[in-house]
Amino acid sequence: MQIQGFFDLKFEAVKDAFAALFENPQERGAALCIKVGGETVVDIWAGVADKDGTEAWNSDTILNLFSCTKTFTAVTALQLVGEGKLELDAPVARLWPEFAAAGKEKITLRQLLCHQAGLPALHELLPAEALYDWNAMIQALAAEQPWWTPGEGHGYAPITYGWLVGELLRRADGRGPGESIVARTAKPLGLDFHVGLDDAEFPRVAHIARAKGNLGDAAAQRLLKCMMTEPTSMPTRAFTNPPSIMTSTNKPEWRRMQQPAANGHGNARALAGLYAGLLDGSLLESDLLNELTREHCRGEDKTLLTSTRFGLGCMLDQPDVANATYGLGPKAFGHPGAGGSSGFADPERDLAFGFVTNTLGPYVLMDPRAQKLARVVGECL
């Protein structure tokens, strides 16, 4: 496999580990970017980007980063907190009055960001096209009753997070949530990152496909069993209501919408760049960075049915939980995306990591491909 790009010779073992991913014939395309002390030490890519496997992955290939988007969204919200336009512990309903319905009058932005608000899913089944109708989703969530008492326990909100936090960004910043996020995170740092993609960018977007035959780890199998056997359960609804959530990633209307939980598009450089910008203080003041990265909840996740640990819009490391460690230091914070892409920072090593792939794996939290690469990086340091 021809590996393109650049790596510092000290990290040759990382390049070799990346190349080894392609020994699996199902691996389509991927990219990896690592920054240490703000300097890029690895920026490599390989494989194919298109559906038919005829177009090579290029330096400017971008793809759907799924939930890696959530940290960009949380950083944007915290910038607005720093400007006094949002408050972490004020009721959401102060800015969004309709949201107070059905026992949600006390829910705060903090609870939304750390998945304690009880709103990871909608009870009422929505039509597939509701996914692309911002107002329909906002109205449904404003009327929704929490699945548990807000603040008591946590359950990851895979996609509702995007409308819930996004609507607050829209109201506080006076523009589309994607526009706000890109203007506040990507533009200042020069990152190739988009939430709401222009049609002109479509030719460089990688086609995403599932790997076959791998059932994943025990956590993935638990969630899959729940989704197959309990259609009305909260975890199932979280991923399948509207029913188009799981099947839309390659559709033009998915790329165009501004869904700040799951449809950010970018590359490995954009992920590493975000986390380098958090480490060097260019995106958040230290007190707000501390809010982002300090533990807000840990333990059994009501949605993912496995142990999770959250800050605000970022997933914190659980060093002794095999499927919940990034693979470097215990203070690491970041966010995995469905199917394998991952971005994180390891503050102890002043390291920022971005890995992206268009071959979806079946794992619920961390993908072993990204973990393996991170561990090799650690060995090189």
TrEMBL record:
Superkingdom of origin organism: Bacteria
Segments forming domain Beta-lactamase-related: 19-372
Name this polypeptide is given: CubicO group peptidase, beta-lactamase class C family
Pfam families noted in UniProt: Beta-lactamase (PF00144)
